[in-house]
Amino acid sequence: MLAFGKFNTLPIIRIRDQEVFLDGGEQGEIVLLEKQVAELAVGSMLNVFVYIDGKNQLQATLQIPKAQVDEVAWLKVVSLSHAGAFMDWGLPKDLLVPFSEQKSKMVEGRYYLVRLFLDEDNRIAASMLLEDFIQEQAFYFKEGQAVELIIAEETDLGVKAVINHQYWGVLYKNEIFQTLQKGQKLTGYIKKIRPDHKIDLALTQEKYGIKVDTTSEKVLAILAKHGGYIALTDKSPPEMIYDTFAVSKKVFKQAIGGLYKQRKISIEEHGIRLVP
Question: In whole angstroms, what separates CA 11 from the centre of its chain?
């Protein structure tokens, strides 16, 4: 069965003139938008994006959109009309955000975080109303698991992020040591599943044994590179520590504490020094 608004792997059933026809199963033949591509033959399998266009015609393309159905994306409004706002999503026909799916009136030229969905006619549209689609509670993640994050918005606690296009999670402000932008994609980690099944997130994987050992090696390498001294201590601001070592202040303190006990470094008032 075809998955509308997503990639499908379909066989070529015939090639006529410069047109390539794909087997759409119950939907019948689908013409590939691109003209005949070199080295294609009947029986070859193509990974194509399948969608219904504004004329209710089924389309297949080799082009890669910026997002598929059921995904969240940071997209730009390129035009406005009586039907709503249209966004650039990487395909020739722009993506519609109906007025009913807008939190506030969208402005041409601005970027918004939206989620793609299928309307009642299986046409792709987008919505700003992420709360209607993204779930607050999750049951199948494990602490320490790597996940894909899309930064959503700031809150009193920190920053909300969308996890794997499906769930909400929170990055706490006292654990963020880098600049985050709305719509930014990055890898994060499940820090904790709370009793109410809501998710706390982290930007680093705090497996302290491995993380501390790795950071210790990095401290020694940076000290050697900078003449045996750097102006950072366990009292330095977390942001400075993260900019240098990409770890939390807690991991850094454990790393230099271990190096100090091994007499590999000395800790001075304003920095640490490599012991000859």
Answer: 31
Q: Which amino acid is at 24?
A: G
SS3 63: coil
- How far is the C-alpha of 166 from the C-alpha of 183, rounded, in Å? 15
Q: Are 4 and 69 in contact (CB under 8 A)?
A: yes
Phi and psi for 20 in degrees, rounded to 5?
A: -110, 130
* Percent of the chain residues topping a pLDDT of 90: 57
Residue 15 lies in a domain: yes
DSSP 94: P
User: Domain containing 77: what range?
Assistant: 72-131
For 263, counting Cβ atoms within 10 Å of its Cβ (0-12 exposed, 13-18 middle, 19+ buried), the class is exposed
For residue 236, tell me if it sits in a domain: yes
pTM of the model: 0.76
Q: Please say whether the beta carbons of 132 and 116 come within 8 A.
A: no
SS (H, E, C) 235-276: CCCHHHHHHHHCCCHHHHHHHHHHHHHCCCEEECCCCEEECC
Q: Are strands 19-23 and 6-16 parallel, antiparallel or unpaired?
A: antiparallel
Residue 137: how many other CB atoms lie within 10 Å: 12
Domain count of the fold of the chain: 4
| Contact (CB, 8 A) for 209 and 248 | no
Is the pLDDT reported for residue 208 higher than 60? no
Last residue of a domain, one of 131, 158, 181: 131
Q: What phi and psi values does residue 169 have, to the nearest 5 degrees?
A: -145, 165
